Structures are given as structure tokens and as C-alpha cells.
């Protein structure tokens, strides 16, 4: 008889209840996870031996670390089902850090803040970019002045502050035991937390699109900024929309209860398993672009965008 209660199994109960197919799936996912770690360490070795700029090398490793870190937390969650919300919190915090560092890295590619603004102020940046305003063709084009840069910086910073804060509040509410993080219900405060989390993510996507699309035309082709940016965008979409879609499917029993897992928790389990595969694929694609030779004109020093500008 299926256990469709609201309680998740302990790690011991889960291991005892695994079928042969589930054991095979866990073995495959662990092999994929190990392959992800191996690719990352190979990239770490390559970057240390081939990237002269300490700033670019460190920030590149922090950005690429988003894939093994996400993999390891969901790998742990695979063995400890009751830690699902906690591993989501850890993955979200590191993702925010990595996204903010990627913004730094893109500025670094342009020569630092001062040089980047000197270049961008002559570029017309379109406001009608996705995911918020792609249909608003009437919006004018603007040039990224120092004032515009400060506004864009706030749009990036809000993700670094709001995402971890909202995830922490969600984790505290989940730990109370009265709220289900996977329940799509207007009476559930975690439902509104997810709405705010996705709104914050969409805003950061818009700011990234606005600023980096303007930078595409002036960044050297050797940095492969478009490809690296596309990988980050895919990660953001998968991290925010995939669990929301699976949660909705579970609410309407499209994803049914199976064995020890209620439908909502099974949706979360499926999301975590899929992400282990997705992180491997994204890191494999990233390797193609981050392993290429950097332009010789790469700046050796980086001006922190958080510093106060005159």
C-alpha cells in the first residue's frame, strides 16, 4: 500500500524501500556527480596553469563552482530526503553569490568599472529585453552612464540580498513543520515566498540581459561572453521555474504518490535528480568556452563594482 501521508521517510527507511530500478538510478546519478567533480577539477587545474590574471581566474572558478556545489547538495539530499528544503537553501545561496561574481567577471572582461562605463556610454542599450519587457517595443534605448550603472548594480545586489533572505525564512517556516514548501496554496506563506523568489530572479534576469547585451558588442570575441551568459541564464531558469512547474504538476496529481513519497515531495525528489544531470551537462558545455585561450589584452587588475564611484 502506498504511503501518501505528509511525512517523508528517513534515510534508513528510504534505503530499505528502494527497488532494483531505484538503486540503479541512484548509482547512475552518483556516477554522473563524480564525473561533474572530475570535470571541475580538470578545469581548476587548467585555469591555474593558463590564466595569468588572478582576478579573472578566481572569479571564473567561483562561477564554475555553481555546478559542483549544486550537484553535491542535491546528491546529499538524494540520501537524506527530509533535508530537501535545506539543500535548496544552500544551493540558492551559492547561486546568488556565483551570479553576482559573474557580473564582476563580465565587468572584468571589459577592463574594470571605469573603462567599462567609458565604453558602454557610447552604446545604445535596448530596454525591451526579456524576460519582463521583450514585448514593449515602444521603450526607448538608453546609454549606460554612471547613474544608470548604479541602478543596474542595485538590480544585481537585490538578488544577492533577497534570495538568501527569503530562502532562509522559507527554511525556518518549513522547519516548524506546519508548512509544506511544495504546496501550492494561497494560505501557505511559502507559496508567496516562492512568488517573491521568482520575481527577484526575473528582475535579475532583466538587469543581466540589459547590461550584458550592451556589453556583447564591445567585449572581445575571445571571452565568449554570449555563450557564458547563455549558460548562466539557463541555470537561473532551471533553478527557479523547474521546481515551480513540478510542484504545480504534483498539486494536480499529474505526478502521483509513489511508495514512501507523497506527490509533492516526489516532485521535489524528481527535481533534485534531474538537476544532477543538468549540472553535468551545463558544466560540460561550460568547459568548451572556459577552456579556450583568453585574449592577451586581458586586464591584470580589477576594480570592484561595489566601490564608491566619483
TrEMBL record:
Pfam families reported in the protein's UniProt record: Solute_trans_a
Domain of life: Eukaryota
One cellular-component annotation, GO: membrane
Topology of this chain in the membrane: Multi-pass membrane protein
Keywords: Membrane, Transmembrane, Transmembrane helix
Subcellular location: Membrane
TM spans (from-to): 23-47, 59-77, 89-110, 151-170, 190-208, 229-252
PANTHER family: ORGANIC SOLUTE TRANSPORTER-RELATED
Designated name of the protein: Organic solute transporter subunit alpha
